[in-house]
Amino acid sequence: MDFSKIEFLLSVHSLKQLPPATLPEVAFAGRSNVGKSSLINRMIGRKKMVKVSGRPGKTQGLNYFQLGDEFFLVDLPGYGFAKVSRSMQDSWQALISTYLETRETLKCVVVIMDIRHEPKAMDTQLIQWLREQSISVLPVYTKIDKLSGSKRQKNARLLDAGHTINAAERVLFSAKTGQGRDELVSLLARFLSD
Fold this sequence. Notes:
Layout: E1 6-12, E2 25-30, H1 36-44, E3 62-67, E4 71-75, H2 86-102, E5 106-114, H3 121-132, E6 137-142, H4 149-163, E7 171-172, H5 181-193
Parallel strand pairs: 2-4, 2-5, 5-6, 6-7
Antiparallel strand pairs: 1-3, 3-4
């Protein structure tokens, strides 16, 4: 994957705005402030392609990025704590769930979780729901640089057990050091080729 050809396409706030389903798509989901934007920026090798914010709820639409004529990368709004109105959160939820259920070209949803925290019910619910919908899931545990090796492994095992994830099915990732980037890109290429 040549990420030098990536460009922002549009921010979708209603299903009518979705681009034509001509390319495969990979969506990135995660709780607010889990490091989703930082992960995407590190993966594509750009520091500011996806806006990073310390304020939960910064991403307010389905942000589409196009990688040449290969695929779309879709940055979904964070779920959980966000400094926006309840009606705005409900609107996101309806848009996201309809998008995930109906987008024929969606190949995989990367579900991003902070390795420092115990399993969260919202992550478990999302992963289970995606599995029930027969949508491929790629769990990624971020911020691994913030834990020592033994603590990192312990927390990864807790998240695996809490979300019923096989260790071989997920990626440990650091946006700061880039650890896990090559593995993530390799797995995404596999999903996109299916």
